[in-house]
Design a protein that fits this description.
Number of strands: 6
Mean pLDDT: 82
Strand content: 15-25%
Low-confidence stretches: none
Largest sheet: 4 strands, antiparallel
Radius of gyration: 26 Å
Order of helices and strands: HEEEEEHE
Strand order of the largest sheet: 2-1-5-6
Distance between the termini: 69 Å
């Protein structure tokens, strides 16, 4: 029985190199598109940035970013709307905040710890 097993192993070893191999996977898998500018409230509501009032400030000396209301996340907040960084272009802001060029960033987020404010009313419209 052991000889038969060895014979099959040898035969299989000879046939496998003759078989057509599958191509290697492509390395150029496209990245997901950037997430739209949005807010996640302390209660977990996901809202587009234009649907809620939120402010992002930065102290350029300390690179401290604060989000108002506290407890809310901002995702992909427009860099040119960050209070305190007026006059800087997007590349300068990215170097200041992330130590990376603008082209290297896809998605970013900020949050200031703290108690969340009352949740905004539910989104209006046909598709909340």
């Amino acid at each position: 029985m052991k000889r038969l097993s060895c014979l099959f192993s040898l035969l299989f070893g000879l046939l496998v190199p003759a078989a057509e191999r599958l191509p290697l996977p492509e390395r150029g898998v496209p990245e997901a598109p950037p997430y739209p500018a949005s807010v996640v409230t302390a209660g977990g509501q996901r809202r587009l940035l234009e649907d809620v009032a939120v402010t992002v400030r930065c102290d350029p000396a300390t690179r401290q970013v604060t989000v108002t209301p506290s407890g809310w996340w901002v995702v992909n907040f427009p860099l040119d709307r960050i209070v305190g960084l007026e006059g800087l272009d997007e590349d300068q802001i990215c170097q200041l905040l992330f130590q990376k060029p603008r082209a290297a960033l896809r998605n970013w987020y900020f949050r200031t710890p703290g108690e969340g404010t009352p949740e905004p009313p539910p989104a209006s419209g046909p598709a909340p």
